[in-house]
Amino acid sequence: MAAASLAKFSEHREVTITLVESSQIGTVGVGEATIPGIVDFNRNLGIDELELIKATQASFKLGIQFENWNKLGGDFFHPFADYGMEIQQVAFHHFIHHLNRKGAGLDLTDFSFAIQLAKQNKFAQPHPNPPTPLADYSYAYHFDASLYAAYLKKFSINLGVKWIDGEVEDVKLNPQDGFIQAIQLKDGQCIEGQFFIDCTGFKGLLIEQALNTGYEDWSHWLFCDAAVAVQSELVGEPTPYTRSIARENGWQWRIPLQHRMGNGYIYASHFQSKEKAEAMLLANIEGGVINKPRHFRFTPGRRKNIWNKNCFALGLASGFLEPLESTSISLIQTAIAKLLRFFPDTSFNPFNIAEVNRLHNSEMEHIRDFLILHYKLSSRNDSAFWRQCQEAEIPESLQHKLGLYKSCGHLIEHETESFEPSSWLTMYNAFGVVPDGVDMRASMANTDSLIKNLQQMKASIQGAVQQVISHQTFIDRHCKARMPKDS
Ligand SMILES: Cc1cc2nc3c(=O)[nH]c(=O)nc-3n(C[C@H](O)[C@H](O)[C@H](O)COP(=O)(O)OP(=O)(O)OC[C@H]3O[C@@H](n4cnc5c(N)ncnc54)[C@H](O)[C@@H]3O)c2cc1C
Known about the structure:
CATH class of the largest domain: Alpha Beta
Number of domains: 2
Largest sheet: 7 strands, mixed
Oligomer: single chain
Shape: globular
Bound molecules: flavin-adenine dinucleotide
Helix content: 25-40%
Structural class: alpha+beta
Strand content: 15-25%
């Protein structure tokens, strides 16, 4: 992603880009669910969307279905979309609260076009002129991460990136200022550069091992620190959403691609052994397993700074938060956008570096808070893991957000927020957080005309959903990938 973006950005500039990766080491290869920014990322590179979908065996994603999260047997959907429509510049959900306090029994999810589509396994790309503004939503992909990387590698090479398959053995620093001068490969090659992007995964070969940037550990807030992943045969049609199923000591993902299912279990190693985690995952797979389960350990948190001297860390080298809301690939993308915006010259202005670090750190903190919310608000108390999640302290920033919502249903949007207010609303609503008061502006609305307005909105959504084809039909018509055995 970095090489492709930098190559595109410097197409008409005098910049030489070298991409070093090691076929011996390989990639983690499990990041398969994305959030909507990925659509723009590819579009900005000038990549044909449907061609990319075919090349990566992708399916579409309208959001995430959370199962067993609030209580065993319950589920809810997190869509990439708003609910209803503002009425006289007042957010829609305030009216729902107002009417529900009067006993209307309205369900917020009836006012989400994306949720209604997902419930019926339907998909279409958002229409540029939808029949109703209520039919506006975003989408993302589930894709084969290794195929995506291969696609972007080819794309980068076509734009002049020099690609080397080699293993970095040593990082040479300038003794005067500690900047990176060169990387030394195992085969003896020495690659000099002015700017280095560290995409070496969890170990952070440049940003940490060479520059000792430091890591902020958030494991006192997020208790999951291990994962096991396995691929299986697809049973039935791919759903246009990821499934996240809460389990006794963590949660399981199901990510449907066109040709297979990606499965994994994220868990707290303090509560569950590697062996039991693997057994739990394998007992909850639908189709036949097609590869060997792979285990991962991680420390939730972030690198103290993603930009240090002339090194910029991306991906796992910059930190990691469990993929509960599929945010890692998105963080790569937003970090690249910041890098391009503050593109360095050889003076490496410290203000630019500080600003990029400030923005990135704040973005990660908001994601961290959003993830903690899923655990904190759950009413599950059937295991020590869930009880610990609810008893744990939460960051002040989250206390503030939650407190504000509880008081009167207010949602805050920060400058660096990955999730829109509607995503936060989804969580509060799904976990049963009811505000103590109602926004004054909503409570003063005329109840009869409000109910009529809401009924019309609901009917428009239902009407628009009827016009949409199934997810599988959409794929078959527009972007069916060849099965790997046919290619
Ligand atoms: C269990 C799990 C589930 C995940 N699920 C999702 C998800 O659903 N959605 C999402 O957005 N993200 C997810 N992620 C995160 C996602 O996988 C990563 O953000 C993404 O794959 C990028 O990884 P990376 O390139 O930073 O690291 P890696 O994939 O580890 O790649 C490291 C690269 O550095 C190279 N390298 C390493 N050492 C050397 C060396 N010495 N010399 C030369 N080259 C070297 C390797 O060859 C490789 O190319 C998940 C991660 C995990 C662990």
